[in-house]
Predict the structure.
Amino acid sequence: MKKIFAIASKDLLRSIRSLYFVGMSLVAPLLLAFLFSTAFGGGDDSTAISNIAIAFVNQDVPVQSSPNHGEIVYQIFQTTGLKEMITLHDVANEAQAVNGINEQEFSAALIVPADFSQAVMEEGQTAQLRIIYDPAKSITPQILEAITTTVADGFSSSKMMIPLAMEELQRRGGQADEQFYSKLVERITSQSQKSSGVATSMLTVLNPQGQEGEVNDQVQQIISIIMVGMMIFFVFYTGAATSESLLQEEETGTLARKFVSPTRVRDILAGKFLGVLITLIIQICVLLVLSSLVFYIQWGEPGKLVLAVVALITSATGFGLFLMSLLRDTRQTGIVFGGVMTITGMLGGLFTSTIQNMPGFMEILKKLTPQGWALELWQLVLAGASYQQILLPFSVLLGMAVVFFCIANFRFQRRFARK
Amino acid sequence: MRRLFDIVWKDICQTVRSPMAALFLLVMPLLFTTFFGLIFQGAADEDAVSEKPVVALVVGEEETPILNELRSLILETGELNVEVFAASDYPDPCVLFEEQSVIAVLVLPENFYFSLQEQIPATLYVDETSSEGQTALYTIQHIFSQEQILYSTSMAAMQAVDEQLPYSSDQEFQAAFEQVLAKANQSWDEKAITVSMERTVSSATDDFHIESAYDQSSPGMLVQFTISGLMGIAIIFVQERRTKTMQRMLTTATSRSTILIAHSLSMFFIIVAQQIILVLSGHFLFGVDYLREPLAILLVIVAFALWVGGMGVLMGVTAKNEDQVVLFSLIAMFLFTALGGAWFTLEGTSETFYAIARHTPGAQVMRGFQNIIVRKQGFSSVLEPVGMLFLYAILFYIAAILIFKKNKE
């Protein structure tokens, strides 16, 4: 037993002293999570979408004494809630706006046509607010379209109010006078301003847990999911990289020296396996603690978290040893680290965990890799699933770990028995 | 000059022979491009999703008058399916998320009307972090918002009439209101103000390729794997130093600058060749419109290769062993790819991230490629990003030369 621990602690020390280990096991996943966290506004009060630069071209020609309705559109975009999201830049004409979009100065342009006031004021007239956008953008045009449509609906509904009121008044035998019109105009103005609000008072929106969703909570969830993906990828990577010491020692002859000592092959392999296991425990503990401190990730109930950690570590160790048992020497390991790890990670959905509506084939492919099952297990733990729900991915991962471990053990025993 | 090309040729042969190089330079980027392209295509293609997401409508035992109207309105959008559940079966509507395959749960209070002002609002339970959840949220919010506009417009018209010619009773007012609301519903199909969406792409250009699902993934993966591919090339530099072959070369009439230039040139040629293969694959295999401005694309490739070459040489002279090259390359890849908008578009990122990221070399490459393939702009559109890339290349080469000159190994 002492020999097993001696071999394990030697491998562990070697790993921890290596800059490569520290970089790949700890710095890389944290760096990626930090990048994503900063990218999506995690950790501070800023929203993911803010200050979208929009060129505003007001070509509106007011009708007689009516106000410039293009100006009213501009003012609606200056109201609280919208001005933080969208910054309008007055631009003289459409050509300049398009030029600004091409130069990536603006994400899109909102063009108010010359007949806008006429369409708002005069019966039978219609007009179109045009949004011209950068085809390389996908989110900002959608946001601008949603807001502009609400503003346009406000004008359309206000205009509709006049014939509705007139018709009803006439039906009841009444006569429209100056006072009636002026009151109607007051109501139209108030209606336009109210309609610019996106939310509706008839609907309360809650999250599936029945609580009010906060934007920061949602960002936090996205960061947690990304962090889980990165952690699983790099834990599997470290599992394989640490297992490489078997091949390295075989090449440098130190393994042969161990075999001539009064140590059984089984003990040497057990020591090596234990070394990988302890290395992964340290890696995952550091990542869990740092990510909860830096990114405020709530890792869920401790009991379920321990189960997820056990399943991840055993499956990553088993998979790493299994891969190394298939290789002849360290010259082949580059392909395993670069190719097999990346491809299985990719198929396991580690790089696409935030994408929804995945094609059906991806769900099938995910189930073929240990990384896919690990991702499912960790996502369930993060979502606060019950023990019953996490039982299946936990059992599958442990089963896979046993199978990988048995194959690796069998191959290494046979390989070293010949020596 | 001959010595220089000998070293270049040796480096190229050494790289081409390595299976790792083939894996990182060509196989992986093509594989990833296909993978992400399929995913984005699948995610965007409605047919690929076997069924539309389902919204659960939870209603009380008392008849909810607008149930059928609301169900029709949701189904008309074509985005969602609807299933109706009794509130008595699900006192806690959140249970539906576990027991049924639903994306959102909409609970309607008893006697809920769009036209009633003082009433308990409906409750929508939805996961806003998922795209399906967002679709459900926006669809239902839009329906409610439209109904509310019609209601408030009709009500405002009625109030104006009531002030001018008061109704005799609430019943009369309500009956008239129902009629006005019905007329408003009819008129709503012909709105006075509508909104149109147009891309900046001029109508003269062939915009056939605009919708390619690979327009983001192809240049994105090209950027990622060009950066990661330099690890194989930079390793050669480190191996020469570690195995002392560089010191042997220095005992010949080969100068330090010749060695540095030769390694830079070999990196440049390999990266240019890699990018040309990836661009051609992107064009012919994935339908990305790279070749509509071949000269502009070539210029971006050259500038990108110069910058990546500069970074490779810097890594080669800085790293002490192969492991460090791998580590530095991967960190560089993660950093410049994420900041460059190769994995996700920068438009949805936070202000600080965007302000920094848009000036990074990766972002300049993406901008150069996307100006041609997505924005359909001309040759001159790549000059600014290319100029920035040249500047970055100069900076990296200067740093590499200074370190190499100091290094007296």
Summary: The first helix of chain B runs from residue 2 to 17. Chain B has 14 helices and five strands. The radius of gyration of chain B is 31 Å. Chain B touches chain A through 108 residues (CB under 8 Å).
